Amino acid sequence: MKILVIGGGNMGLTYARSFLRSHIVTEDNMVILEKSMKKAEELKKLEIGTVYGEPGNYIEGCDLIILAVKPQDINALFETISPFIGGQQVVMSIMAGVKMSTIADGLGIEKIIRAMPNLPAQIGTGMTVFSSSDAVTRIELVMVQNLLNSTGKTIYVEAEDAIDAATAISGSGPAYVFFFMQSLIESAIDMGFTQAQSELLTYQTFRGAVELFNKFDYTCEEWISKVSSRGGTTEAAFKSFSTDQISDHFKQGVNSALNRARELSQK
Fold it and tell me: Do 22 and 125 sit in the same domain of this protein?
């Protein structure tokens, strides 16, 4: 299997490295297309495959083509690569807000996979939700899922609309976690801890909580009850959260992300 990654940014580089590290593909069968000459030269030094700066006939020999460019660049991209795309190639897009129908029209193809990874994919702990057009075979889906699993966990969804929801949950989700971590760090500093102490307190608390959740079969509500005691400190905090409708405001924020994802898909 020969793979072409178009776009040598963070996610494009993440995929190339993950595929090679998991031995799913060899360096000889890994190809990267990066239009920035400076970036292309940097990628060549990493020895992660063959790097090109312009589209060419080499594209025709690739089994899977991954579109890892900015959504605003798609029209120019379609124009330059469409002459080299064949009907039997599978094209996977990780461009936020770009529908499969847009890719089908732009490239004149039927085998399309749309995926939404997130930032932790860079260290192999990502969450990717993906969907596909009807023309993609089951074997091709399994092949792509194996590739995506090298960057973390995956969920396949039948409805493409679910990709927008995934964008709001797992795509933007790491930023939500960092927001709460920063709030806890600032609270610790206000209480007299140093910056370093506050960061360690917060990091270890988040890490420990996630590992507990993964290790035992309890819901979040059950874990909250285990931490809380009647008349205690945790109960006091949650009474304040309830009074200020923190949960409702947070859900509103996530829904705002969903609405924006849907808006981008309509453009």
Answer: yes
Residue 264 CA: distances (Å) to CA of 99, 155, 164 = 9, 22, 9
**Phi/psi of residue 64, nearest 5 degrees:** -125, 130
Identify the helix (H) or strand (E) that includes residue 38: helix 37-45
The residue with greater pLDDT, 24 or 31, is: 31
State the Cα–Cα distance between residues 50 and 64, nearest whole angstrom. 15
pTM of the model: 0.90
The span from the CA of 165 to the CA of 231, in Å, is 38
Note the maximum CA span of the chain.
Answer: 71
Place of tokens 């973390």: 152
pLDDT band at 96 (very low <50, low <70, confident <90, very high): confident
Same domain, 144 and 202: no
* CB atoms near residue 120 (< 10 Å): 18
> How many domains, the chain?
2
Check if the beta carbon of residue 230 is closer than 8 Å to that of residue 212: no
Residue 88 contacts by C-beta under 8 Å, 6 or more apart in sequence?
111
Structural domain span for residue 261: 173-266
- Kindly state whether residue 168 falls inside one of the protein's structural domains: no
